Amino acid sequence: MFEFLIHVSTMACLFGLLALSLNLQVGFAGLVNFGHIALFGCGTYGAAIAFANQWGPLAGLLLGGAAAALLALAFARLGRNLGADYWGIATLSIAEILRTFATNEQWLTGGAQGIHGLPMLFGSLPTPWGPLATLALCAVLLAACWALCQRLVNGRYGLALKLLREEPQLASSLGYDLAALRRTPLVISGLIAAVAGFLFAHYATFVGPDQLYSAETFLIWSMLIVGGLGNNLGAVAGAFLMQFLLAYVPFVKDALGLPSEFVAAMRLTLVGGGLLAFLLWRTQGLIPERIGGRHA
């Protein structure tokens, strides 16, 4: 049970990083990104390709970060010509194109079988010290990214992002460069997502296209909606709550004597039902956004 808790906590930290990165886009800048999982995939495949070519983990981290930054810039470039809803659909389409590319380009990505055997970052340490060291690293990075996001959104720059979210035409009339306002949070959040992907790749020791289905993006969305859009603490809280709820579904199945099919169905119900329930009855989430020193 102790090792299981370490595993769930590690995954919660990784999803916390993804929730923070998506929150910077949609929660503060109003950029409705349905292809966020592709930025995560840049990190996973950066680690995997570096491993396959024996370049070392640092090269994998840099490769994943560079790919995520380029993809984020491409997303931002699309946003110059498309409305918010069409831009969201375009990001979803790009993510699916990249997943299809990863599935078919076996020479680079391992194809549908993916790339196996990545080393764990602390694999040389005995159990439970190796998993504990991984958890500590993920927790430290989560705290650092939370502090970075807090610093970004609590100053004048954060006010500009909120103005972009609420009144983009007013922001333009006041002299703000809307393209730059969209570009910066996309690149920063892309780098955070790539770091999460790099850590996940070395934690799972396997990278494949099945990890990049759009359902994973909507899982991150559900964490944001449940925790609270526009609140970094809410994003992390939503990630931990959803991850622990999903992790304990098999125990509920065993306790009730239900068939194995119940696990997948219940997880989908938790994601979809939680998303729908909060959208209908508590749109501000568990920890609402703070506006003018008070919660919205």
From TrEMBL:
Major localization listed first in the record, in broad terms: membrane
Membrane-spanning intervals of the chain: 6-24, 31-52, 58-76, 129-153, 186-206, 218-242
UniProtKB keywords: Cell membrane, Membrane, Plasmid, Transmembrane, Transmembrane helix
GO cellular component: plasma membrane
GO molecular function, one term: branched-chain amino acid transmembrane transporter activity
Database matches in InterPro entries: ABC_transp_permease (IPR001851), LivM-like (IPR043428)
Membrane topology: Multi-pass membrane protein
Subcellular location field: Cell membrane
Keyword Membrane belongs to the record: yes
Protein name: Branched-chain amino acid ABC transporter permease
Species: Azospirillum brasilense
